[in-house]
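Dear colleagues,

As part of the handover before I leave the project, I'm documenting each prediction I ran so the next person doesn't have to rerun anything. This entry is a single chain, and its sequence is reproduced below.
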Amino acid sequence: MGGSSTSEKRLQGMIALITGGSAGIGESTARLFCRQGAKVVIADIQDELGEAVCRDIGPSAMFVHCDVTQENDVENAVNKVMINHGKLDIMFNNAGTIEYGYTSITDVSVSEFERVMSLNVTGVLLGTKYAARVMVPVRQGTIINTASVASIIAGVTGYGYSSSKHAVLGITKNAAMELGMVGVRVNCVSPSVVATNLSKIGFKINDTEELEEMFASKAVLKGVKLNVEDVAESVLFLASKESRYINGHNLVIDGGLVQTNSLVSPHTYTCN
């Protein structure tokens, strides 16, 4: 019978560029990609942290300083991948930020709104732009963007973050339509809140278990708490050949949170 060996690594021989790869979801994904046979370039503004992660991973990872709001930095990161590896198979546009507190529309700070939009939206746009420039000529590659459950539901976060993640979904779908015509896939992941250092700051909750429990309690799926490894595994699926016919998809990782009907009592359904 045909088929690949069960011991075959899912990203063997692939080259990935991960923005925001020094911590959180990006770091977890970088480590997982390398375990699955890829070589990874971590692009981040946190130089010391990023270089430390690469040293810990070993020769399969390297670091490049990159502020994703700066076009020259993003172009340089992609150029560094091409110089060192000669190709780019996977672009994971993961770098992002949160708002520091929720504000009513009557009190929204334009400067804070623009800061969040610049990092979360411009960074994805530029990453997609320069990844496409090297993927289109070879008619293959996959681009994955980090969105959020805030891309499809309201009231979870403030105006800047919610708007930015809706925009990430829009960029993903537009790029999927255009680039899919030449064999390049574009998808995004939309996790619920993950207890990273960034989300702890945003929700003003320092305790990891408390933050995990707060959102786990709102999801339909019980007995599981979302962590960075869960998101990394979803990104791996979209990066691998297992998802080769998936394009323009928003993979929601939320335990059924966005499907929950608040009018339905948890006792409505019983399992025997």
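Residues 15-256 form a domain with the Rossmann fold fold (CATH 3.40.50.720). The first strand starts at residue 15 and ends at 19.

All the best with the project,
I.
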